[in-house]
Amino acid sequence: MADAPTSAATSSSPPREQWTGQIGFILAAIGSAVGLGNIWRFPGVAYENGGGAFLIPYLIALVTAGIPILFLDYALGHRFRGAAPTALRRAAGRAKGLLESLGWFQVAIAFVIGLYYTAVIAWALSYFVFSFDLRWGDDTAGFFTGEYLRTGDPGFSLEFVPGVLIPLALIWIATIVVLALGVAKGLQRVNVVFLPVLIIAFAVLVVRALFLDGAADGLNALFTPNWAALGDPNVWIAAYSQIFFSLSIAFGIMITYASYRKRRANLTAPGLVVAFANSSFEILAGIGVFATLGFFAFQQGVDIAELEGLTGVGLSFITFPAIVSQMPGGPVFGVLFFGSLTLAGFTSLISVLQVVSAAFQEKFDLTPRQAAIRLGVVSAVLSILLFSTTTGLLALDVADNWANNIGIVASAVASTILVIWVLRLGPELRYHLNSVSTFPVGRAWIALVGLLAPVVLGYMLVARIVTLLLEGYGGMPAWYLGIVGWGTILVIVVAAAVLTGIRWRRPPDDFTPWPPYPAPRTAEAGKGVRS
């Protein structure tokens, strides 16, 4: 097989950063995928959508949408060697502006998510410290929203909350340092250390939970199948939604990560490892969370169904502290739980912000250190102004809902349609995956990415938009949702347009993809060397 070509532009460019090997890439990709949602979202979603029966649509969604779109991101990043704007621009042919703007749309989503995701990690870090003396007391809800966050009414405040501001600043300092160190010395090294610690700590937590009174009731509540739920389309949508949001796909992360792999690097087999490792951790989280909830229900003398706060922020910062206060050895359990939240959140955070850093490095010809410091300082200031005040919780909740359910889903729909149907790159990307990988993908992969994914995700997007327009969100005023929610989408769109219009310091267009894709006249389109 021919070596990768070297053009004038390639030789004059600084060498591209790379992972040190396959293990480093896999750990970093798993660290990105395993985040807060694995711990606080999957267990509740599974319980509310058929229990054990939910695993059937969940696994089908993993195989038919999650893994195919993951492979799409890998192929784009690895073949076109860049962050989302660079890779999509190089893939676009004559439609450079359109595809580059999609890349910057993904970067802007990552930037927004980074601003508020950092705040949640700061909360987890605070609660890690609070666990040592169970500082939240008996009224965990009152402590979280009152004494700790000092939550006010919907609006905009500059009344800072020191208990949030200080850990938030510490998280931003750590993030800037990691990004400044680069791919191998920063992102990879953090994941090599943090991911094993996370898995061990959470495994210890799960084992402890299994020996609590009522744990079996909790597991029965989670895994007892409700087969009738399989006939509900909303259950299937919930499964696709969970897979989609938990794998870090369709908003630039895996495009960027794959671009740091060597030219001769297996893509599909590591992709399967990442996907199934993520799902395995979600199931482990479900076991730990519901064994613990079973204990809580036993202590309260109620059924699991009568408990409140089974997902999200409520589960982590209200329900779990209440459980920790009642169990033997509660402080140790709290330290393990909130330590795991902090580690899972941080490994995901640095992957989100690397999307932004890499894109700016390529657009403005910056070093990793320059990009990390400049973007990090701006991001930290915005994050502190928006999310360390008394209105931070409400702003975070609304921004998260719009960025994820509108921004990321819209990005995925646009990516699959533009790449597969407009540019017709499916055969070439399939060829690329098969040329460098040990696990070949067939023509069905193109159909899954180009047909099933946009249909399912398009339905999710339209349904969510209609719901938000007709019903609002969280009982908040329409003016507030308009400014924070729809305003977030407007900012993302405007940022994408502006960044697309700015001139590149080092134009990325003098580029030759490798391996060369044989023309359809000389080789069957899409047929890889191992297919």
TrEMBL record:
InterPro entries: Na/ntran_symport (IPR000175), SNS_sf (IPR037272). The chain crosses the membrane at residues 23-42, 54-76, 97-130, 160-181, 193-215, 235-260, 272-298, 335-360, 372-396, 402-423, 444-466, 478-499. Its main location: membrane. Pfam families: SNF. Keywords: Membrane, Transmembrane, Transmembrane helix, Transport. GO terms for cellular component: membrane. It is a multi-pass membrane protein. It is found in: Membrane. The keyword Cell cycle does not apply. NCBIfam families: Na_transp. This is Sodium-dependent transporter.
